[in-house]
């Protein structure tokens, strides 16, 4: 169940949030901010993936399609429609959600896990192949460039906020805002009636159905919402990095990284994906010098986590905390 | 377009399909017996390709000896991998996803281990046989005819093992009901191990036959894994005969689809057909509704 937050949890969440917000003020360099922006983008992705895979129990392997659809959707809409990225990332997310519901329709009626895994994987491959073949629209593997950045604005009291490669502070706070939005929206869903239905489905699909939970409707809603959030993360990514290639935005590597983050952090736990994203992204950056071993380490970590820490690092914390609680009681 | 070109395309589709049947058959075998979706199957295929390259090209072993040897090596690797990972995961709660995740991790690890060990360059393997078979206007390179022959012989041998040997009976019993089979004295754990090994060996044989056509690289496994998935879904997940029919079918569908569009859409066509089949007949073209 999604339990009420303990005061310790609220404290650590607040502390983490303050530390996150204070980082640019503490004089962190552009590189550190860049890594943290990537951490936050992938946190949003992992949180949305975890909602479907960890909480709802629907094991999908094709969420990178929605990341790519959001990224390409938002980039193309803002380039050809002359629409500001502030608006277009939501339109791109909408495109991702529409595709999510479209691919969800055939797959979510089926209870067989391998079918869901294979169909979502195949769908993502179709999106990737389409993006690399439709060269007239996406420029294929040459890369879509010239994606507009977010427009700057004047913030009373603080001066002008700009979004460019030289000054990453604006992007940093925007990514933090996006992450906060995704976390709050996900928490609201988990605490609503839909959330109760999600837990019921995870704990026993047939039992939930017999109690009047409309499986298809709940699954479609959660799947569509998750696709929307991942699409928004993709849109932000597109306008942040400024260049998109099918293999970087929709490659299987993207999905593998998010799966690794979620599994290492803890599938089906609220903080797990955040821990995983922070750990693996910063690990990935510090392993840059042995670039070709990076994915080898990811693969080995996935295997090790599945074998020896099936509930991820987030649950290791619980194991450590539990004895103290029992002595206090 | 002349008729002979169409016939040639269909024959090429059948030959590609025979390879898909070998790969899909391996995935279906493991799924049928243990209900495990092996995401690392493509990496057994890839390692089989490297095995053939090192034996045939680097050490000049004749292919007739090299291919069975590689199949044997991959059988052993499959058995070891199953014993060290899947074996411990199967009794757990949530084993289905744990197995998918673990084999996905293994796949990434093997792929990058190959990248580090063998390098990123594409290794070419020469044709095993030269020459062209002519039947009227239809031309067929002997290498491709050999692929079809090897695939058919391998699949027939597998069918014989499954139907006529004591191991085949044990395997089918374990597939039907693992608990009941072990009550009857069938060592289900050992059957699972051998099944995994056989599946890896099937992948290695496919790799050996395809290596001269496509070269060997660390990334060769992933597209083949995806093909195998399409095949097993088409044929009904877990059905070995279904996978064989699904394999040939996918080969022909792709050949016709490529004629109608272009080669770069080949993979997308297969995936789209699969999603359509899942929509209309989730239990596969030849399976039974559950």
Tell me what you see in this structure.
The complex is a heterodimer of chains A (329) and B (290). By secondary structure, chain A is mostly helical. Chain A has helices at residues 7-22, 30-55, 64-81, 85-107, 113-133, 135-138, 169-191, 193-203, 205-210, 215-241, 246-250, 252-265, 272-286, 291-308, 312-328, and strands spanning 144-145, 153-155, 159-161, 243-244. A two-stranded antiparallel sheet of chain A has the order 1-4. A two-stranded antiparallel sheet of chain A has the order 2-3. With 290 residues, chain B is mainly alpha-helical. Helix content of chain B is 74%, strand content 3%. Chain B is built from eleven helices and two strands; from the N terminus they run ααααββααααααα. The longest helix of chain B has 32 residues, at 3-34. Chain B is globular.
Provide the descriptors you would attach to this structure in a database record.
heterodimer; A: about 325 residues; mainly alpha; two-stranded antiparallel sheet; globular; disordered C terminus; B: two-stranded antiparallel ribbon; 11 helices
In short:
The complex is a heterodimer of chains A (329) and B (290). Chain A contains 15 helices and 4 strands.
What is the N-to-C succession of helices and strands of chain B? Answer: HHHHEEHHHHHHH
Discrete helix count of chain B: 11
Main β-sheet, spatial strand arrangement of chain A: 1-4
What overall geometry of chain A do the principal axes of the alpha carbons give?
A: globular
Biggest interface goes to: A-B, 40 and 42 residues
Provide the low-confidence segments of chain B as ranges: none
Rounded radius of gyration of chain A (Å): 20 Å
Overall pLDDT of chain B: 89
> Strand pairing plus helix content of chain A: what structural class?
mainly alpha
Q: Largest sheet of chain A, if any? A: 2 strands, antiparallel
Can you give the mean pLDDT of chain A? 84
The structure class of chain B reads: mainly alpha
Question: How much strand content do the residues of chain A show?
Answer: under 5%
Q: Tally the beta strands of chain A.
A: 4
* Number of strand elements of chain B: 2
Distance between the termini of chain A: 22 Å
Which geometry of chain B do the CA atoms define?
globular
Radius of gyration of chain B: 19 Å
Strand content of chain B: under 5%
SSE run of chain A: HHHHHHEEEHHHHEHHHHH
Distinct helical segment count of chain A: 15
């Amino acid at each position: 169940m999604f339990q009420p937050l303990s005061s310790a949890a609220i404290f650590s969440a607040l502390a983490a949030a303050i530390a996150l917000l204070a980082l640019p003020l503490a004089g962190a360099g552009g590189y550190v901010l860049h890594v943290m922006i990537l951490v936050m983008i992938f946190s949003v992705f992992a949180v949305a993936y975890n909602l479907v895979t960890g909480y709802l129990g629907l094991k999908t392997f094709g969420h990178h399609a929605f990341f790519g659809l959001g990224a390409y959707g938002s980039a193309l809409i803002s380039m050809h429609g002359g629409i500001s990225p502030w608006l277009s990332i939501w339109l791109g997310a909408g495109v991702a959600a529409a595709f999510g519901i479209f691919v969800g329709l055939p797959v979510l009626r089926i209870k067989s896990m391998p079918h869901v895994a294979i169909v979502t994987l195949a769908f993502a491959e179709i999106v990737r192949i389409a993006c690399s073949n439709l060269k007239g629209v996406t420029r294929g593997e040459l890369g879509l460039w010239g994606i507009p950045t977010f427009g700057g604005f004047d913030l009373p009291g603080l001066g002008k906020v700009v979004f460019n490669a030289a000054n990453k502070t604006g992007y940093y706070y925007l990514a933090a805002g996006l992450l906060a939005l995704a976390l709050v929206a996900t928490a609201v869903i988990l605490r609503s009636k839909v959330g109760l239905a999600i837990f019921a489905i995870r704990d026993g699909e047939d039992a939930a159905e017999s109690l009047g939970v409309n499986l298809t409707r709940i699954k479609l809603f959660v799947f569509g919402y998750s696709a929307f959030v991942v699409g928004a993360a993709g849109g932000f990514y597109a306008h942040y990095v400024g260049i998109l290639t099918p293999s970087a935005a929709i490659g299987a590597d993207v999905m593998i990284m998010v799966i690794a983050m979620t599994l290492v952090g803890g599938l089906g736990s609220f903080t797990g994906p955040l821990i995983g994203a922070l750990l693996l992204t910063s690990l990935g950056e510090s392993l840059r010098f042995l670039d070709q071993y990076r994915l080898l380490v990811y693969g080995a970590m996935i295997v090790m986590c599945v074998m020896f820490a099936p509930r991820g690092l987030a649950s290791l914390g619980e194991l450590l905390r539990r004895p103290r609680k029992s002595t206090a009681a | 377009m002349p008729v002979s070109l169409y016939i040639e395309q269909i024959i090429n589709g059948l030959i590609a399909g025979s390879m898909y049947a070998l790969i899909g058959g391996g995935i279906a075998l493991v799924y049928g017996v243990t209900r495990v979706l092996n995401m690392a199957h493509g990496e057994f295929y890839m390692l089989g390709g490297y095995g053939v390259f090192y034996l045939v090209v680097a050490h000049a072993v004749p292919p007739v000896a090299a291919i069975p040897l590689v199949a044997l090596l991959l059988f052993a690797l499959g058995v070891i991998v199953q014993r060290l990972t899947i074996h411990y995961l199967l009794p757990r709660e949530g084993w289905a996803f744990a197995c998918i995740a673990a084999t996905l991790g293994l796949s990434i690890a093997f792929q990058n281990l190959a990248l580090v060990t063998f390098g990123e360059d594409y290794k070419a393997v020469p044709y095993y046989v030269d020459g062209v078979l002519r039947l009227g206007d239809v031309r067929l390179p002997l290498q491709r005819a050999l692929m079809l022959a090897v695939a058919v012989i391998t699949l027939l041998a597998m069918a014989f093992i499954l139907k006529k040997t004591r191991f085949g009976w044990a395997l089918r019993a374990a597939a039907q009901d693992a608990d009941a089979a072990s009550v009857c004295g069938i060592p289900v754990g050992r059957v699972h191990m051998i099944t995994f090994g056989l599946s890896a060996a099937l992948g290695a044989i496919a790799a050996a036959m395809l290596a001269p056509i496509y070269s060997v690289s660390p990334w060769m496994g992933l597209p083949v894994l995806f093909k195998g998935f399409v095949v097993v879904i088409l044929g009904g997940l877990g059905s070995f005969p279904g996978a064989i029919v699904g394999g040939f079918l996918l080969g022909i569908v792709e050949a016709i689809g490529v004629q109608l569009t272009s080669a770069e859409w080949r993979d997308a066509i297969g995936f789209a057909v699969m999603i359509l089949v899942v929509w209309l007949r989730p239990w596969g073209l030849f399976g039974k509704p559950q």
